[in-house]
Structure formats: C-alpha cells, structure tokens
C-alpha cells in the first residue's frame, strides 16, 4: 500500500532578512525540510529569534522564502496566483497566534463566522457551525461578547474556533498558550488533541515549553537556521 502524501511539506527553505546594522544579510533559515502527515502533531522549539515564527509564516504562505518550496497536499503553493493562494489558505490552513488578532468591533460568533463568509458560505449554516464550535470550546454563554469583554483564555478559544471554522487540514499555531495559565493551557491543548481524533487535523505547534512540545508525536528543534528532529 502506498503511504498517503503529506498534508504539508517544505523543502530546502532559505530565508534571509536585511540587517539594519551591517552589510551582511541575516540568514535565518538555512535549508529547512519538514513533512507533516494527516493527523500528525509536531512541535517546534528553539531559542528566541531562531526563526520559528518566520518558518510558520512561510509554511502558511504568509511569507515567501528566498529559496525552497512549500507544498500543500503535494501542490506547490507558488504555482498559485495571490488571490487563489489566499483562497487555498482560507480553506486549508487554520492559524492560531499568541496575540489572537480577533476583530475588536465584532462579537465572538461574528469573529468565528468570518472565514466562512469570506469563502461565500451560507450565513445561517456558518453561524450554526460557529456556535457549535464555540459550544465545544465551553463558550456557549459568551458568543455575543466582544473580545474586550472576554478573558485572555476565552479570546484564545474564540481564536481557535475561528481557525477551525473552514475545517482546515492543518493548524499552524504560534505559541497558542504563551500567555495563558495552566488551566487554560490544558483546555486549549486537550481540544487540539481531540481534533486530531475527530477531524484528522494536523498540527504544527511552536512553543517554548518543552513539556507541551513532548505531548506531540514528534519534536523538532530549530537552531542556527537548521531544523532537526529531537524526539
Ligand atoms: N521582517 C523582518 N526584517 C528583518 N528581520 C526580521 C524580520 N522578521 C524577523 N526578523 C528577524 O529574524 C529572526 C527570527 O525571527 P522570528 O520571529 O522568526 O523568531 P522566533 O524564533 O519566532 O522568536 P521568538 O521565540 O522570540 O518569537 C529574528 O532575529 C528577527 O529579528
């Protein structure tokens, strides 16, 4: 039997940034390779400034490398025009960031529904799924709250529900529990692991916390521009 193709793969990614303090570019990623299978959960650790967020942005098509390729379901994302890439991103990838980027003037349910409406889905159906997701995240009595009326952990859960709205095949999470207490960290992580079982979602998780990283199937470390499998 042939092995299924990975959900997400990158090959020989190089990323450089201009240095403000000298003529030499900063060479942040030096030939990074990574492959993520369906329902696989991987974590990436590395010191501050090692390039973890940069790599995640490249994997999600939010930033372009200087060299190398990114494939979603074996299709190079650079073969798509910008607007098609945005559509594909909206359908395939759920982003969760530490600072959740919820829209302040919209309620929790409006924030969660947004990705589906952008895709042209029926509003009633989208609202139904959004409220189901919020319920699953223990937020049913907060759906009409605006972000400023929610705690940090609650905002994070809304952000997670929004990331799942379009049933992405992969979640890219950048320190999703970075500013949360232990209880909320556990809620978010348990939900992520449950999603792997129920929706076969894959996960790339950036974290500073080794204990959280170890709960994933594999642990990678990004050091001096090179990504290595640790466990
Ligand atoms: N747009 C940019 N222009 C110049 N340098 C940048 C840019 N974006 C990132 N960098 C540099 O690239 C390096 C990697 O940044 P990145 O945010 O990916 O690190 P990180 O591993 O996620 O760090 P942290 O754990 O602190 O969030 C840093 O040294 C940063 O200063």
TrEMBL record:
One of its GO terms (molecular function) is ATP binding. The keyword Lipoprotein applies. One of its GO terms (cellular component) is membrane protein complex. Residues 8-230 form the ABC transporter domain. Keywords: ATP-binding, Lipoprotein, Nucleotide-binding, Transport. InterPro entries: AAA+_ATPase (IPR003593), ABC_transporter-like_ATP-bd (IPR003439), ABC_transporter-like_CS (IPR017871), MacB-like_ATP-bd (IPR017911), P-loop_NTPase (IPR027417). It holds the Pfam family ABC_tran. Belongs to the ABC transporter superfamily. Macrolide exporter (TC 3.A.1.122) family. This is Lipoprotein-releasing system ATP-binding protein LolD. It comes from Rhodohalobacter barkolensis.
